[in-house]
Amino acid sequence: MSATAYTDPALEVRPASSFVAFLAAFADLARSHGANVAEVEAALASGEADIKRGIEATARLVTNSRIAAERGEPVAWDYLIDRLEFYEAEAARELSQIRRLVDRLLTFLGGAPPAERRRARALARLQEDAVVRFVEGLRDARWQAMAARAHFDPAAHGGPVVNDIAELRRYLASF
């Protein structure tokens, strides 16, 4: 197994841990109606930066594995794909939990001025979008790793490799 197949520590980024400070600041905002919105925005920016680093690390991991395979180095594609699938499932589970928590916090803003409620909802949407991008990034990386496995190790899992959506549609229509 090559070193590139081992997961990058940056993949240990998790949505819940990335947004703990955001959720705490958001809870303060919900509790005190008018708490420091700048604190919530700063915590959101920090969490988004963590998520962006995680997405970049995931893409880099798949790219490095592909480069290693092109050089003829052994790559444990199945292991890599399994790890990416695990991280994707964990991130999706955390997204669901974070959504429920944010929805509960938003109910505490019921008596807040409309402008404050709109701003809180917008911040919550930005946070959710970042986590969704993370889940999608993991999914895309897993699919890229599966395509690379099929390309570099065709004996591992038989089947065609398609390069465009029209070709894929024709292939699937043949069943």
Count of DSSP H/I helices: 6
Most strands sheet: none
Calculate the terminal CA-CA distance, rounded to whole Å: 36 Å
**Portion of residues in helices?**
over 70%
As a percent range, the share of strand residues is: under 5%
Structural class: mainly alpha
Tally the beta strands. Answer: 0
Number of domains: 1
Q: What coarse outline follows from CA principal-axis ratios?
A: elongated
- Our Rg estimate from Cα atoms comes to 20 Å
Q: Which consecutive residue ranges, at least 5 long each, have pLDDT under 50?
A: 1-6
Mean pLDDT: 81
Q: Write the H/E string, N to C.
A: HHHHHH
Description:
There is one protein chain. With about 180 residues, the chain is an all-alpha fold. It has one domain. The protein is about 75% helix and about 0% strand. It has 6 helices and no strands. Helix 3 packs parallel to helix 5 and helix 4 runs antiparallel to helix 5. The chain is elongated, with a radius of gyration of 20 Å. The two termini are about 35 Å apart.
Fold topology:
Blueprint: H1 15-18, H2 20-32, H3 37-70, H4 77-107, H5 114-152, H6 165-173
Short description:
This protein is 74% helix and 0% strand. The chain has 175 residues and is mainly alpha-helical. It has one domain.
Keywords:
175 residues; mainly alpha; 6 helices; 74% helix
